[in-house]
Structure formats: structure tokens, C-alpha cells
């Protein structure tokens, strides 16, 4: 494309069309632009347009298009063609900086972004004059231009804050420092001077302060990796000025906006960050300045208002104090009683107050409020910062700080008592203060785990928390109600059990509260109380103790789900699950109503599943209903199927992907409840379960395998008789799974079930294929996980079909195959097998090979007999071999194969571990002894001679132990 | 470096990790942003008048008022002329300018083009004062930048100075020693040029019980510069000749001589294991360890550096340092008030912790864990970073019992606190360490307990926060830990990867099997 007016005209037209709302016009235009963007001069045409076009909208459009073009094409990827020709690159770099600086702000921003993208690739080597070009502009005195430069510099340098140290990076930083540090320092000084000369000119000040913010940010980036020599030498200049900016105020810079932080706040906030950086990393050099900053920041806190716009500044400032006061060599700055008192009084207490903004969030944005308050995503809030400062101060001054605050707590409570409806916020602050003072360590699972011993938590609970919760009106002072419930929740391990028991009906009562926060907290508190452990690892609160409350608890929980805003409240659903699990059979009378409500809920949310946790607990609750009911009355399974299958069918038909794995798990659970033949309703579904589309989704694999296993356990003979044509499809699934290193263990679970349960004749024709497939995998891509599963499988096969069958099928695939597998796989690798049941299967299988396989006694395989026995004794006696070859380190082996599916998505749908040799063999060592005895009776002398010639002494000793224990001897 | 820790490699924890990555030589960044460290040894020194006079009474005749002020033109004329008296005056004038305290005009002097001529004066055995003035002037020129040193070397000064080492006048041979120190200190190229002119015999010949302390200090300093610099290391045969003298000097009572000898040894140990072995073989480690504990900072610093370098070597070399008692001294150094000492001590410990578990056991037995935890908790940031490495290596190579011991010592709290450090690399190493701890905890079935502990100590929150970290590796490491250990009962997805497939119908071609 030439740089001609005609082309400019064409481009203008197409750019205009890309703004058209009609896709029929817009899309072809976009396509066209894409098709020409590889042409030489295209970017230069765009630059021309964004500078010279008559229409502003085209200018802006050209600048955005240009930036996106740079973003897509500038980087040169190895082995891929260079997408921008060299002369264009040179021309862009030569023109873009002045162009950016002379453009109006809207376009400047796009070009600045483009520069930083280019800079990321080309700076510094391929763009050596960028820095000088930028620095020269500092002289211009035009702060519109200067801010453009600073902004670009910031986007170029901010990566120094997170990248790893490297020679390459530091070379660049050094280059930047050499060219940039001095001009930046001079600019900093000059800007500050201008601020005082223009102290009365609001619009000038705004521009100047924007510069100062950018300068302070650049300072942070340039000082991040290490303390540069230049900045160490000029620390006095920077720190003195930073310090005075911290203490500066100017009415003209104050904003009316309550929410948005103003320039002054942003600058001070950045200065706090800069001071914190130096305090943390360059303590030795920064020490002389630190006390001044502590004082300044503290004063700043004392004088800063409650508005939201100051939040970031205040929390940064408090965090700075919190990090400094923990350091032993700055302890002295805080230890004076007056200092401590005034920090407590003027910094901590005011920032713990419940503000209008908090109140708003409590009412209108309760989800966010709960997340911040309960789950600790409150890192940037003032309350949190104040709380951290309390904990920091307590490190050295626990006694004095506790003393000071006790006074405040008492006076705030007195204020409240005088006029609760007006002063309830005082009580809120008192509770928050007690909480932050008392909690030294906390976990979600246990609440507070270490408490400040100087605070009497139970007394406070009885005197100040319970009375609020006992009040007849659940909807009065919702914030205090929430505070009280939260108090129970987090101090549940500190408050004695009898007090918790007193609280339970109160909590149940508050499930009815209108406030979302209050009823959510009540549900959450109940759920947490129900998970507490007492002695003997049992739950602290027993089902018996809950007996009087079962009905009201269940009623209120389900009613809470109907309260506005809580229809998919995960805390409530989790509390339902936990209640079921705790109450067990005492919920049975309520099941008919419960299951109806749960299925209705399921139907409703399956239209648009949006709350994963809610859904998860809902399915858990369904599983619990089934298990608890069917345990007492197995016949009841039918009524669950009746209630659920309709919804399940709908979910499967509508392909609700989020729910399908759950449905499979619930179906597995239901199917396993059946004692007799598999119902026809399940058989009708069977062919659908083998559909490849289901198996393509990784999340389906574990639950589907589990379900197929249930089919095989309950209905193997039905499948063999009524669905024999589906057997290849079933094995196809096995083959699909075995082909994947990640899913092969799932394939083995399926295969093991097939071998264990299917009538032998139904799989006869496929057996050879199965082994060939396994050998193929073994030969081409064996992994430790695969070998472990493989060993379990062949031994299970041996147990089921006999050792001779195993030998015959191996040798029919390839002569001497059996010997090769014994020698190369079983003997050297058997030690790797892990898991009780897995080891047992292998022991019994190998015992069979040793004692029930004639070719082991009278062919060339005989030489493997003693090594195999030795390996078996090793399996019994040696610690498990958990070495994994080095090259396998990086493949994913998290899901270590157990014999049963390790997938436990639904905890309450889990099944018991299945031991296929359970009845057959109790003690595999004794079983070995008895089998050897039998063998030696059949061929006297042979066994003993094989043992004495090559079994090592230690193994022999173990073996003698087994024989003794079995009270048999060898002939 | 040969693969070490073969023993470890069979254990699960080191699998896939490169053992050589554990031992870290002192971070040799060719680029420094910081100010040159004040406690490092000085590379080049200028002979400044006042200073010199106090130290060398032999030069008492050199009174400043005698020096005649000459213009640069006059100097050039005089130096290039044949009047011996004027030559001396001019050289003296040059020397005087170059010896003034502030901003010596080295460039200007070089630009006069008279250096070859001044070098010539070094050979004027008949005129000792001229020799001395020339030597002094050239010493100070060589003390400047590399550019300046080059001017002297290219003027042919190296052989001339080496001849002067054997001058009958002690103050002249001393000045030659000094000049050669400056030349050698410039870098490996000139250092080896000095060696190539056979500096060793005449230089070592100067060392005798009768050598005055001041002179001996100069010799030691020059020797240390001859041992200094890598790429390449100084020639082995030269090192072997210098070492016995250094060993003697290390026994001297003068702290500056000991200091520079220690620096020399520290340079010799700053390299490949073969070079470390040469030093270990001299049996000097116990003396170095003793010096590490010396109250004088200028002695302690290089002695610690030397031992620190030794333990970057093989397990056997590290064991030699342990046998010399390094572990008994390190606790005091870890608690030293000076941050750089803390830092180097922690760095040294980190390399010992990279050894086999027997050596890790010795770390425990010698009581290093409490001071280590103190450094992590409230040390200077530089020292904290090194302490993080100690913990990382310890948890990589230690046995489960040893790791438990480490946790009992209280390492977790300060370690987790450092997750808010402003340094991506440190954060990443801590995250790796946390993974190590979890692996150890899993083998004991205590992973859940560790989860709670990490959460109690506010570590969980910090790790969660790191999911927002700009550095991709940090973000992924944090995410990995969260997914693996903290996803709790709400875990929904195992997310296995789909493998290569297309094998949906059940059939397979048989091939020949050979396992």
C-alpha cells in the first residue's frame, strides 16, 4: 500500500464502517482491514490518519486500530514470519513519541500503550534513543507533554516490580537509571517548586500533582529490584520531599467526591508504599529517615477523615505502621504509654467504626459483605488494617494494649446501653475490637485457635452477646445480630460447650431473620458448630442433644431458602447437608417433605446452574437423604428413584454439563442400594452411557466409570444376556481410557469390574485383544502408574480365571510371553504396588502362579519360580518402593490409583472399599504357606530343593515364619 | 560439577531437581545497581601524599615545598629533554599533581603522551629519586580506570616494575609492588600479563621476617590482587607458589595483613571445585574458621567469604569446613549486628544445607536452627533472602524427621511472613519450600495439620493473595499449592488431561512385544 491520498481515503471509509452497528456492514470492513494489515505502510497510513484526519472519530478509531495492530503483530516469534516490515518498524519508532505527545489525551493513551508494547520487545537494544527522546521532553516545561512521557515511562518500567532478577533485566535497569534517574530527580524538585509557586492555581496544581504521582510510581519501580547507587546518594532529596508531601494539604486539591480518591490521596498513598519498600528492603540505609515517616504517617492517620475515598490511603498507612511496629529495633518508637494510647484512640478505634458505606453493603450488597467479613477478602479495608495493627502492637505490648482497649470497650458498651437504637454502632465497634484483640490465630475450620489470654471471652459472650440473640425480635439491629452470631462462630473453640448448646436454638431462630447477612451467618454458625469434634473424634454436639430441635431446624433451614436473596444460598445448603449428616436417622420422618423440596430446588436451578457450591451441597444433601433412609429401609430406594429420575432425565436430555457428573454419582449410589437384579429403568439407560460424547468430557470420566462399575456389580449377567451387543462398546470405553496416561487407571477400574463380574463366556472372544492392548501400552509408553494398575489387573485375572489360563493366554499371544512378563515386569516391579487391597490381590495371584501353574514346575519357566517367590516375600515384608524414574517427575500423578475410584466429588455418595478376594483369602501369608504345602504334597521334594538352592536366607526365614503360623510344613 | 547427592536422588524429594542448582556460588551478577560495597576489598589504590608520609618515614626528604610548580608544556619539554635535573623536577610535579586529594588530573597527564618516557625513567638505576618519582606517578595513573591502567601497561611498565622489585632501595621496590598491585587488580588480562613476566620469584623474595609491617601490607595486598578475578582463574602453578606464603601471612599479627591474606584466599576459593580443593589441601580451613570469629570486621568479612566459597564445593569440601568448626561459629555471625555479615553467614549456611542429610543433621546438632529462625524473623532483608535459601535447601535434601525438626524450631511463621516480601524470586522459593514441606507432611499423613498451621499463621491468605501476583511463575506456584492442598472438601474437579485418542472402537493390531 502506498502512502497515497487514495489509500488514506479508502482506509477512512473502512474504518468508518467498522463503527457501524450493523454487522453486515461492520464485519466485512473488519475483514478487509485484517486482510490488508500485512501490507507495507499500513501502520503508517493509520498514524497519518490519527494525526491528520478531519474527523475526530476517525482519529480515535485509527489510534485504537493502530494499538491493536501493534499488539497483534509487533512481537517477532521465532520460526514465524516477521509480520511488520523493517522500514515500517523504523518509521513507527521514529515518529510515535512526538506524535503521542502532541495528541489529545484520548489518542495519547492509545499511543502510549502502543509504545509500551513496542518497548517491551525493542527497548533498550532495538530502540536506543527512546530514553533520550523522552528525557529531553522533561525540559519542555509543558506538563501535558511531561505527563505523557511519565505515563509511558511508567508502563515501560513497572515490570521491574515483579520480574526475577537477571543480568539482562539489570542491564536494562542500569541503562535506564543512567539516563533517567537524574532528570527524574530534577523534574521532581522542579515540580515541587512549581507546586508552591502555583499553590493558588487549582488547574495547574492538578496537572502538577498528576506528575508527582507518576514520579512517585516511577521511584517505586526503579527502586524495586535493589537500591540503586544514584538513589542512595540522593536519598536526602527524595525522602525529605516525600516527607513534606505527606504532611502537605491544600484546599484546592480536596475533592467533593466521597468515593473516588483524589490526587492528594493517591500521591500520599504511593509515598506510603515507597516508604514501606525502603523500610522493608533497605532498612540499613533508610533507618535515619524512618522515625520521621512514622510520625508523619501517624499524623496523617489522625487527621484523615472517614470517607471512602481515603480508604486506600488509610489502609496503606496503617499497614506501614503495622509492619514497622513489629520490628525489634523500632519498638522504642511505640513503647511510650502516651504513644500507644493515642495510636489506639486516634488510629485504631476510629478505623474500626462501622461506616455508612459498610451499612450500605450490609443491606444492599450482602454477598460482597459476607465475602469480605467471613472469608477474609478484606485485605484492603480499614478495619482489616486496623486489626493488623492491633496484632502487630500486641507482639510487644499485649498487656498495655489490652488494658487501653478494655477501657474503650467498656465506654463504648456504656454508650450503647444508654440508647441502643441510636448508639448501636458503638457496640458493633466494641465487639469488633474485642474480636481483633482476642484472636491471635484463626482458621476457617476451627475458628480462633489461639486467643489472647487477657480477654475473658466467655464472660463477654454471656454478658454482651447472648442478650442480643435472646431478644424476641430477630429483625432488630441486624448488624449487632450478625456480630453476635459471628462471635459464636469464631470463638466456638473458646466458649464452653454448655454455652454453645444454649446458643443453638437462638441460632436456629435467627435463620428466620430477614437480613440476608443474619440468616446466612446463622446457617454458617450452625454448620461450623456441627463440625466441631469432641472426645473420641465424635462430633462435639450429638444427635441426641439436637433431638428437641430437629423439626424446627429443618423447617427453618428450608424456609430460609425461600427468603428473598437466598434462594441459592450456599451457606444454608451446606448447613442442610451438615444437619443431615449429624442428625442421621432422626431426619427420616421428614424425608418425604425434604426430598420434595430438594428435587424442586434441583429442577429450578438446573435451568441455569450458577452457584457451584450451592449445587454441590444440594447433591450431597440428596445423597445423604438416600443413604440415611435406605440404611434403615432398603426398599425405600424405589421412592427416591421415582422422585429423582424425572429431573435426572431432564438434566441428561438438556445436557446440563455442570450437573451430569453429579447425576451419575447419585445414580451409582441408588443402583448400589439395590440388592436384587438391576431394574429395567437402568438397563434402558445403559447404551447411552457408552456414548463417546460423554467420555470426551474429562469431568464425566470418574463418575461414569463409577456408574458402569455399579452396573457391572449389579447387572453383569443382564448385560451379558440382554445387551451383549454393547460389550464391544463397553470395551471401547476401556480402550479410550487406557490410551491416556491421565485416565488409564480409570480404564483399569472398569476392566477389573468386567473381569470380576462378567460371565467368562461373554468376554471370551475379547480377552486376547484386551491383553494385546495392554502390552502395547506397556511397550510404547509405560509409566509407573500404568505398571501398578497392570500388575493388579493381571493378578486379579489370575485369581478369577486361574494361573494356567493366564499363562496360556500370554503364550498364545506370543511364544514365551508369560516368562517375559514374569521376568521383566512382575518380579522387578511388584514392590511398587501400593494399597492394602491391591497388595492382597497381587499376593493371591502370585501364589496361584507359584502353586497352581504346572508350566512353572516343568518348563523353562521353572528358573523364575524362586525369584517370583522371593519377590512375593518382598511384597509382604519390604517397604513399598516409591521411586519414580526421573523423566516421569513431570507427568501428572496426583491421582494415584487406588483399587477403587479415587474420585470423591460427592463425599456422601462414596462407596466402601471393595475387596474382590475378601472372602477367599483372609491372610495372604498363611494362604501362601498352605498353597505351598499343597504343592509340595503333590510333588514331594521339588519345592524344598528349589527353596534351598536359590532363595536368599532372609526370605527363607520369613517363609518359615509363614509356614509355622499356618502350622504346615513342606515335604 | 559432578552430580552430587546421589544418595538423595533416590529419595522422592529431589526427584527431577538438579542437585547442582542447590549450591549457589555467590551471586555473580556482572551488573550491579548498588553502590560498590564498602566492605569489599579495594581493587586499586592511589598513593596520596599525606598518607604516604606518615607511613614511610624513609621518604622524609620529600618535602612538598620543594616541589616546583610547572605548566603542562614545561613538563612535557622537561620530561622529553635530556636534563636529568629537570626530568626529576617534572616527574615530581606530575607525581605531586597525581597525589593530590581531589580529582587528580590523570586524563590530562595521559594525554601529554609522556608515559613511555616516564616508564623509561623506571630503568634509571643511576638515579634512584627519579626512579622513585616515576614509579609513584605511574602507580597513581594505574590506580584509575581500566583506560588509565592500560595507558601504563601499554607504556611497557610491567617488566620495568618487575625489575624494580629487586631494587636495592626498599622504598622503590615497595612502590613497584604497589604499582603491580594496581595493574593486576585491573582484571584477569593484566593480572596474567604480570604473571607472564615472572613476577612471583622477586615478589615472594621480598617477604622475610625482617620486612617492615607497612611494606608487608603492600605485598599482601598485591598478592591478593594476583589471586583475584575469574575467567580465567589465575594460573595454577602461580597459585601453588603463592599459597604457602599466604598461609604464613595468615598467622601474622597485623590485622590488615591477615585481612588481605583472607581476601586472597577468598578469591582462590571463588571458582571451580578443583581450585577449592587446592586451598582445602593446604589445611588452612581451621585457621580461616578461627578468623571468621575475629572481632575485627575487616578480618571476619573475608574469612567468612573464603569459608563461604569453600562450602559451595563438593560434599567432601563442605565436610572439611564443617570439620574445621564452621558450624560452631555461624550462630554468632547469624546474630551479628552488621547486616552484611548476617547475610554472608546465611548464604554460607544455605550451601551447607544443600548437602546430604548427614550434614543437615550437623546443622541441627550444632544449634543453627534457632539463629536461622531469628534471621528469618527479624534479620535485614538481604539476610532474610539468604535464610530463605537455607530453608529451601534444607527442605529439599533433609529427611522427614529433619524437616519436622525445622518446623518445630518455628521456621514456618517467619517464612510465611516473607511471602509479602517485595521480591519475586524470594516469594517463589518460599512457595517451592512450602511444597516441600507438604510433601514431607504427606509422607507422615500430616498434610491436613500443616494446612491448618499455614492458615493459622496467615499463610493461606498470603498464598491466596499471590494468585494476583504479576509474575506468572509466582502466580502459578501459588495456585498449584492452593489447588493441591487447600481446595478442601469443596474440590470439584480432578481435571485429568485428555490423551491422544481415536481408539473408540475396540480393536488393536498386534505387534511384537519385548519389554
Automatic annotation (TrEMBL), chain A:
Gene from which the chain derives: Cse1l
Domain of life: Eukaryota
Natural source organism: Climacteris rufus
GO molecular function, one term: nuclear export signal receptor activity
Keyword Transport: yes
SUPFAM superfamilies, per the entry: ARM repeat
UniProt lineage: Eukaryota, Metazoa, Chordata, Craniata, Vertebrata
Location of this chain's protein in the cell: Cytoplasm; Nucleus
Similarity section: Belongs to the XPO2/CSE1 family.
UniProt-recorded name of the protein: Exportin-2
Domain Importin N-terminal: 29-102
Annotated GO CC locations: cytosol; nuclear envelope
Entries under SMART domains matching the protein: IBN_N (SM00913)
PANTHER family per the UniProt record, alphabetical: EXPORTIN-2, IMPORTIN-7, 8, 11
Segments crossing the lipid bilayer: none
Gene Ontology terms describing biological process: protein export from nucleus; protein import into nucleus
Keyword terms of this UniProt record: Cytoplasm, Nucleus, Protein transport, Transport
UniProtKB/TrEMBL annotation, chain B:
Gene expressing this chain: Kpna1_1
Region Disordered, annotated ranges: 1-20
Pfam family name, one: IBB
One GO-annotated biological process of the protein: protein import into nucleus
Protein's UniProt name: IMA5 protein
Keywords from the UniProt entry: Protein transport, Repeat, Transport
Domain IBB: 1-55
SUPFAM superfamilies, per database record: ARM repeat
Placement of ARM repeats on the sequence: 113-156, 156-184, 283-325
GO molecular function (one): nuclear import signal receptor activity
Native species: Climacteris rufus (rufous treecreeper)
GO cellular component: cytoplasm; nucleus
Family: Belongs to the importin alpha family.
Amino acid at each position: 500500500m502506498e502512502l497515497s491520498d487514495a489509500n488514506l481515503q479508502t482506509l477512512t471509509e473502512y474504518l468508518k464502517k467498522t463503527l457501524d452497528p450493523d454487522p453486515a456492514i461492520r464485519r466485512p470492513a473488519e475483514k478487509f482491514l485484517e486482510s490488508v494489515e500485512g501490507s507495507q505502510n499500513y501502520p503508517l497510513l493509520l498514524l497519518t490518519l490519527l494525526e491528520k484526519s478531519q474527523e475526530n472519530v476517525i482519529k480515535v478509531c485509527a489510534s485504537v486500530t493502530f494499538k491493536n495492530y501493534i499488539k497483534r503483530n509487533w512481537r517477532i516469534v521465532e520460526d514465524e514470519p516477521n509480520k511488520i516490515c523493517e522500514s515500517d518498524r523504523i518509521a513507527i519508532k521514529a515518529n510515535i513519541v512526538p506524535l503521542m505527545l502532541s495528541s489529545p489525551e484520548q489518542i495519547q493513551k492509545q499511543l502510549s500503550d502502543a509504545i509500551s508494547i513496542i518497548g517491551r520487545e525493542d527497548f533498550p537494544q532495538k530502540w536506543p534513543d527512546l530514553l533520550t527522546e523522552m528525557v529531553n521532553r522533561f525540559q519542555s516545561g509543558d506538563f501535558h507533554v511531561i505527563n505523557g512521557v511519565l505515563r509511558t515511562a511508567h508502563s515501560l518500567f513497572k515490570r521491574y516490580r515483579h520480574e526475577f532478577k537477571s543480568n539482562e533485566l539489570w542491564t536494562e535497569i542500569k541503562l535506564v537509571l543512567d539516563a533517567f534517574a537524574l532528570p527524574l530527580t530534577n523534574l521532581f524538585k522542579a515540580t515541587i517548586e512549581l507546586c508552591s509557586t502555583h499553590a493558588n492555581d487549582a488547574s495547574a496544581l492538578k496537572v502538577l500533582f498528576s506528575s508527582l504521582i507518576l514520579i512517585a510510581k516511577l521511584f517505586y519501580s526503579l527502586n524495586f529490584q535493589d537500591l540503586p547507587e544514584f538513589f542512595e546518594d540522593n536519598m536526602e532529596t527524595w525522602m525529605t520531599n516525600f516527607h513534606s508531601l505527606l504532611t502537605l494539604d491544600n484546599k484546592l486539591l480536596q475533592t467533593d467526591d466521597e468515593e473516588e480518591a483524589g490526587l492528594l490521596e493517591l500521591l500520599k498513598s504511593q509515598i506510603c508504599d515507597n516508604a514501606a519498600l525502603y523500610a522493608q528492603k533497605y532498612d540499613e540505609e533508610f533507618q535515619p529517615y524512618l522515625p520521621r515517616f512514622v510520625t508523619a504517617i501517624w499524623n496523617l492517620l489522625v487527621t484523615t477523615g472517614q470517607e471512602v475515598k481515603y480508604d486506600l490511603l488509610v489502609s496503606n498507612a496503617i499497614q506501614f505502621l503495622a509492619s514497622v511496629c513489629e520490628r525489634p529495633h523500632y519498638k522504642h518508637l511505640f513503647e511510650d504509654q502516651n504513644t500507644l494510647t493515642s495510636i489506639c484512640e486516634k488510629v485504631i478505634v476510629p478505623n474500626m467504626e462501622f461506616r455508612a458505606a459498610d451499612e450500605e453493603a450490609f443491606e444492599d450488597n450482602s454477598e460482597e459483605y459476607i465475602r469480605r467479613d467471613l472469608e477474609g477478602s478484606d485485605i484492603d479495608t480499614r478495619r482489616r488494617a486496623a486489626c493488623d495493627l492491633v496484632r502487630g502492637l500486641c507482639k510487644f505490648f499485649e498487656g498495655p494494649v489490652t488494658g487501653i482497649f478494655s477501657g474503650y470497650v467498656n465506654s463504648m458498651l456504656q454508650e450503647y446501653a444508654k440508647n441502643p437504637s441510636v448508639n448501636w454502632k458503638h457496640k458493633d465497634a466494641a465487639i469488633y475490637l474485642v474480636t481483633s484483640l482476642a484472636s491471635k490465630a484463626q482458621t476457617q475450620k476451627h475458628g480462633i485457635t489461639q486467643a489472647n489470654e487477657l480477654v475473658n471471652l466467655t464472660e463477654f459472650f454471656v454478658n454482651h452477646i447472648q442478650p442480643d440473640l435472646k431478644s424476641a425480635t430477630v429483625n432488630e439491629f441486624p448488624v449487632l445480630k450478625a456480630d453476635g452470631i459471628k462471635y459464636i462462630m469464631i470463638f466456638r473453640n473458646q466458649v464452653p460447650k454448655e454455652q454453645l448448646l444454649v446458643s443453638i436454638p437462638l441460632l436456629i431462630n435467627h435463620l428466620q431473620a430477614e437480613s440476608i447477612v443474619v440468616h446466612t451467618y446463622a446457617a454458617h454458625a450452625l454448620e461450623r458448630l456441627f463440625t466441631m469434634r469432641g472426645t473420641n473424634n465424635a462430633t462435639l454436639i450429638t444427635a441426641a442433644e439436637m433431638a428437641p430441635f430437629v423439626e424446627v431446624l429443618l423447617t427453618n433451614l428450608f424456609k430460609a431458602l425461600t427468603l428473598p436473596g437466598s434462594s441459592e444460598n450456599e451457606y444454608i445448603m451446606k448447613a442442610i447437608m451438615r444437619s443431615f449428616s449429624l442428625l442421621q436417622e432422626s431426619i427420616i420422618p421428614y424425608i418425604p417433605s425434604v426430598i420434595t423440596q430438594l428435587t424442586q430446588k434441583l429442577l429450578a436451578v438446573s435451568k441455569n446452574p450458577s452457584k457451584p457450591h450451592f449445587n454441590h451441597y444440594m447433591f450431597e444433601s440428596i445423597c445423604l437423604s438416600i443413604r440415611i433412609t435406605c440404611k434403615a429401609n432398603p426398599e425405600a430406594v424405589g421412592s427416591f428413584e421415582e422422585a429423582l429420575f424425572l429431573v435426572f432425565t431432564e438434566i441428561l436430555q438438556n445436557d446440563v454439563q455442570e450437573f451430569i457428573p453429579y447425576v451419575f454419582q447419585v445414580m451409582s449410589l441408588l443402583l448400589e442400594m439395590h440388592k436384587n437384579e438391576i431394574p429395567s429403568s437402568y438397563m434402558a439407560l445403559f447404551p447411552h452411557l457408552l456414548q463417546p460424547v460423554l467420555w470426551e468430557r474429562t469431568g464425566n470420566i470418574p463418575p461414569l466409570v463409577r456408574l458402569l462399575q455399579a452396573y457391572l456389580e449389579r447387572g453383569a449377567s443382564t448385560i451379558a444376556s440382554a445387551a451383549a451387543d454393547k460389550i464391544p462398546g463397553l470395551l471401547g470405553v476401556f480402550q479410550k481410557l487406557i490410551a491416556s496416561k491421565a485416565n488409564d487407571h480409570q480404564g483399569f477400574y472398569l476392566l477389573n469390574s468386567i473381569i470380576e463380574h462378567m460371565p467368562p463366556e461373554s468376554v471370551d472372544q475379547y480377552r486376547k485383544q484386551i491383553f494385546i492392548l495392554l502390552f502395547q501400552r506397556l511397550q510404547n509408553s509405560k509409566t509407573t502408574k500404568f505398571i501398578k494398575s497392570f500388575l493388579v489387573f493381571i493378578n486379579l485375572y489370575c485369581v478369577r480365571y486361574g494361573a494356567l489360563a493366564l499363562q496360556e493366554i500370554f503364550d498364545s499371544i506370543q511364544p514365551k510371553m508369560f516368562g517375559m512378563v514374569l521376568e521383566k515386569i512382575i518380579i522387578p516391579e511388584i514392590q511398587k504396588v501400593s494399597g492394602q487391597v491391591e497388595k492382597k490381590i497381587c499376593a493371591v495371584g502370585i501364589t496361584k502362579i507359584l502353586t497352581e501353574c504346572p508350566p512353572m514346575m516343568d518348563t523353562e519357566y521353572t528358573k523364575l519360580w524362586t525369584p517370583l517367590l522371593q519377590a512375593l516375600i518382598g511384597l509382604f515384608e519390604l517397604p513399598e518402593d516409591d521411586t519414580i524414574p526421573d523423566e516421569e517427575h513431570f507427568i501428572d500423578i496426583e491421582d494415584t490409583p487406588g483399587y477403587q475410584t479415587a474420585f470423591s466429588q460427592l463425599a456422601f455418595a462414596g462407596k466402601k472399599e471393595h475387596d474382590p478376594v475378601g472372602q477367599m483369602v483372609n491372610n495372604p501369608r498363611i494362604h501362601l504357606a498352605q498353597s505351598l504345602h499343597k504343592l509340595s504334597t503333590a510333588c514331594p521334594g521339588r519345592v524344598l530343593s528349589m527353596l534351598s538352592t536359590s532363595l536368599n536366607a532372609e526370605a527363607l526365614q520369613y517363609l518359615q515364619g509363614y509356614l509355622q503360623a499356618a502350622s504346615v510344613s513342606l515335604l | 560439577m559432578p552430580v552430587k547427592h546421589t544418595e538423595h536422588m533416590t529419595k522422592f524429594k529431589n526427584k527431577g531437581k538438579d542437585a547442582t542448582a542447590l549450591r549457589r556460588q555467590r551471586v555473580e551478577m556482572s551488573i550491579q545497581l548498588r553502590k560498590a560495597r564498602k566492605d569489599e576489598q579495594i581493587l586499586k589504590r592511589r598513593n596520596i601524599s599525606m598518607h604516604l608520609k606518615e607511613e614511610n618515614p624513609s621518604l622524609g626528604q620529600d618535602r612538598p615545598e620543594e616541589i616546583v610548580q610547572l605548566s603542562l608544556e614545561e613538563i612535557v619539554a622537561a620530561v622529553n629533554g635530556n636534563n636529568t635535573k629537570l626530568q626529576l623536577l617534572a616527574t615530581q610535579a606530575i607525581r605531586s599533581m597525581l597525589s593530590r586529594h581531589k580529582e587528580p588530573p590523570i586524563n590530562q597527564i595521559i594525554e601529554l603522551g609522556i608515559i613511555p618516557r616516564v616508564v623509561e625513567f623506571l630503568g634509571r638505576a643511576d638515579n634512584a629519586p627519579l626512579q622513585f618519582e616515576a614509579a609513584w606517578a605511574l602507580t597513581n595513573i594505574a590506580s584509575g580506570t581500566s583506560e588509565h591502567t592500560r595507558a601504563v601497561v601499554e607504556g611497557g611498565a610491567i617488566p620495568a616494575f618487575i625489575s624494580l622489585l629487586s631494587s636495592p632501595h626498599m622504598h622503590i621496590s615497595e612502590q613497584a609492588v604497589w604499582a603491580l598491585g594496581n595493574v593486576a587488580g585491573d582484571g584477569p588480562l593484566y593480572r596474567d600479563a604480570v604473571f607472564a613476566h615472572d613476577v612471583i620469584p622477586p615478589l615472594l623474595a621480598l617477604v622475610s621476617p625482617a620486612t617492615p609491617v607497612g611494606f608487608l601490607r603492600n605485598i599482601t595486598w598485591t598478592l591478593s590482587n594476583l589471586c583475584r578475578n575469574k575467567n580465567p582463574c589465575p594460573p595454577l602453578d602461580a597459585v601453588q607458589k603463592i599459597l604457602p606464603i599466604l598461609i604464613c601471612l595468615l598467622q601474622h599479627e597485623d590485622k590488615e595483613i591477615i585481612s588481605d591474606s583472607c581476601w586472597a584466599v577468598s578469591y582462590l576459593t571463588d571458582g571451580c571445585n578443583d581450585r577449592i580443593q587446592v586451598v582445602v589441601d593446604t589445611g588452612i580451613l581451621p585457621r580461616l574458621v578461627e578468623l571468621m570469629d575475629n572481632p575485627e570486621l575487616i578480618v571476619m568479612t573475608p574469612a567468612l567469604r573464603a569459608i563461604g566459597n569453600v562450602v559451595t564445593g563438593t560434599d567432601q569440601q563442605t565436610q572439611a569446613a564443617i570439620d574445621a568448626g564452621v558450624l560452631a561459629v555461624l550462630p554468632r555471625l547469624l546474630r551479628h549486628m552488621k547486616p552484611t555479615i548476617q547475610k554472608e553467614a546465611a548464604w554460607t549456611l544455605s550451601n551447607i544445607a544443600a548437602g546430604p542429610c548427614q550434614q543437615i543433621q550437623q546443622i541441627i546438632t550444632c544449634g543453627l536452627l534457632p539463629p536461622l529462625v531469628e534471621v528469618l524473623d527479624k534479620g535485614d532483608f538481604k539476610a532474610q533472602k539468604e535464610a530463605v535459601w537455607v530453608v529451601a535447601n534444607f527442605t529439599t535434601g533433609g529427611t522427614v524427621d529433619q524437616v519436622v525438626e525445622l518446623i518445630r524450631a518455628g521456621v514456618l511463621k517467619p517464612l510465611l511472613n516473607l511471602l509479602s516480601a517485595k521480591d519475586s524470586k524470594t516469594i517463589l522459593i518460599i512457595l517451592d519450600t512450602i511444597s516441600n514441606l507438604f510433601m514431607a507432611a504427606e509422607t507422615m499423613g500430616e498434610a491436613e495439620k500443616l494446612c491448618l498451621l499455614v492458615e493459622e499463621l496467615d499463610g493461606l491468605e498470603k498464598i491466596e493473595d499471590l494468585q494476583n501476583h504479576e509474575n506468572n511463575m509466582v502466580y502459578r506456584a501459588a495456585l498449584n499449592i492452593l489447588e493441591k492442598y487447600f481446595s478442601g472438601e469443596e474440590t470439584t474437579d480432578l481435571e485429568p488431561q485428555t490423551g491422544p485418542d481415536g481408539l473408540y472402537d475396540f480393536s488393536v493390531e498386534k505387534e511384537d512385544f519385548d519389554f
